[in-house]
Amino acid sequence: MSRERIVITGIGTVSSFGDGVDIFWDSLVAGKSGISNITGFDVSELNCKVAAECKDFDATKYMDPKQARRSDRYTHFAMAAAKLAMQDAKLDHSSVSPERLGVLIGSGVGGMDTIEQQSRAFHQSGARRVSPFMIPNLISNMAGGVVAIELGAKGVNFGIVSACATGTHAIGEALLHLQLGREDVILAGGSEAAVTGLSFAGFCAMKAMATNYNDDPTHASRPFDLNRCGFVMGEGAGVVVLERLEHALARGAKIYCEISGYGATCDAYHITSPDIEGRGLSLALERVMQDAGVKPEDVDYINAHGTSTQYNDKFETLAIKKVFGEHAKKLMVSSTKSMTGHLLGAAGAIEAAVCAKTLETGIVAPTINYETPDPDCDLDYVPNVARKADVKVAISTNLGFGGHNGALLFKKYEA
């Protein structure tokens, strides 16, 4: 049975580089790091003091100031990315029916800033000082809800939460709904604003974060490098406009690429560690290619989860070699987290944007800070410098605490 062809027609990103896909992509191609010393809160008691903060972000550019005051920062990012994606797609109410417009924007953590602020108010001043907006602001589905209200989108809308695989799963679920013909357009992606004191304290307690580069933040995230020592958190959002090809052509939309496959699995192994044999991710990779109808040798590029942690990078490399065999050595594999930091629930969304831009431009963004090869990580990680390449098929992978795995497959658009 033939399925609807689905394409990406708009991209919206909010990152430490600034707002919008152009500055985002130009920074990645230039090999620029968006990681710096934290300025948003006191880091004196933390052993990781660096992050990719959105330091100059202004929510009132995208939301009414009153609404912005009543919303969490992760919702601000989601609204900005959604509106930027709509603008990039040249999509408005005249070009899509509200009943056929969906929003699937997830978050791995949700309103962490709200949780911290309201907890302080409760403990310092009592229950009467807790805001009536606390619950709506902190729940992880609210970003998608607020975006849908603002845009009048009455199609599919629910919150997806799968830790660092959230953005990938949101886009994958959107793909399924569109292939079934239930919607014409879906805004899909992830948003995260977990660069806060409490969040950092928790991740530092887990010994998951980079601690050896506090005086050299741009070198802190170093996926696949022998001297990696943990991940660096980022914040922001990514939203892509997914659209039925027929609908996109009818309105004369610009097409970045086709999205053709989705794979989702669980390690069923450990709450934080990936499967040490890479079985869950291997299955997700096999499924995404089967779903898209491509063979391993057809794949040119993988935007890896590549967190810069000891376990992830080793076991992700293992999974790629298991699935692709000899072709693994011919693959280009890069981790743009080396520049953006790890945006947790938004990671898969901005990395889907990377794949779309790779297919559009024929440029593969590098893995920066790759200086000392690790014998366990022996693939072509596009080290340090962007590369021109004829990429026709790209895959993005993401893993989340709880054993969640997600993979998306993108193809160069051909009429």
From TrEMBL:
<dbReference type="InterPro" id="IPR014030">
    <property type="entry name" value="Ketoacyl_synth_N"/>
</dbReference>
<keyword id="KW-1133">Transmembrane helix</keyword>
<keyword id="KW-0997">Cell inner membrane</keyword>
<dbReference type="GO" id="GO:0004315">
    <property type="term" value="F:3-oxoacyl-[acyl-carrier-protein] synthase activity"/>
</dbReference>
<keyword id="KW-0472">Membrane</keyword>
<keyword id="KW-0812">Transmembrane</keyword>
<comment type="function">
    <text>Involved in the type II fatty acid elongation cycle. Catalyzes the elongation of a wide range of acyl-ACP by the addition of two carbons from malonyl-ACP to an acyl acceptor. Can efficiently catalyze the conversion of palmitoleoyl-ACP (cis-hexadec-9-enoyl-ACP) to cis-vaccenoyl-ACP (cis-octadec-11-enoyl-ACP), an essential step in the thermal regulation of fatty acid composition.</text>
</comment>
<keyword id="KW-0808">Transferase</keyword>
<feature type="domain" description="Ketosynthase family 3 (KS3)">
    <location>
        <begin position="3"/>
        <end position="412"/>
    </location>
</feature>
<keyword id="KW-0536">Nodulation</keyword>
<comment type="similarity">
    <text>Belongs to the thiolase-like superfamily. Beta-ketoacyl-ACP synthases family.</text>
</comment>
<protein>
    <recommendedName>
        <fullName>3-oxoacyl-[acyl-carrier-protein] synthase 2</fullName>
        <ecNumber>2.3.1.179</ecNumber>
    </recommendedName>
</protein>
<dbReference type="InterPro" id="IPR016039">
    <property type="entry name" value="Thiolase-like"/>
</dbReference>
<keyword id="KW-0276">Fatty acid metabolism</keyword>
<dbReference type="Pfam" id="PF02801">
    <property type="entry name" value="Ketoacyl-synt_C"/>
</dbReference>
<keyword id="KW-0012">Acyltransferase</keyword>
<dbReference type="Pfam" id="PF00109">
    <property type="entry name" value="ketoacyl-synt"/>
</dbReference>
<keyword id="KW-0275">Fatty acid biosynthesis</keyword>
<comment type="pathway">
    <text>Lipid metabolism; fatty acid biosynthesis.</text>
</comment>
<dbReference type="InterPro" id="IPR000794">
    <property type="entry name" value="Beta-ketoacyl_synthase"/>
</dbReference>
<keyword id="KW-0443">Lipid metabolism</keyword>
<dbReference type="InterPro" id="IPR017568">
    <property type="entry name" value="3-oxoacyl-ACP_synth-2"/>
</dbReference>
<keyword id="KW-0444">Lipid biosynthesis</keyword>
<dbReference type="InterPro" id="IPR018201">
    <property type="entry name" value="Ketoacyl_synth_AS"/>
</dbReference>
<dbReference type="InterPro" id="IPR014031">
    <property type="entry name" value="Ketoacyl_synth_C"/>
</dbReference>
<keyword id="KW-1003">Cell membrane</keyword>
<comment type="function">
    <text>Proposed to synthesize NOD factor fatty acyl chain. Involved in the synthesis of a highly unsaturated fatty acid moiety, which forms part of a lipo-oligosaccharide that is responsible for host specificity.</text>
</comment>
<dbReference type="InterPro" id="IPR020841">
    <property type="entry name" value="PKS_Beta-ketoAc_synthase_dom"/>
</dbReference>
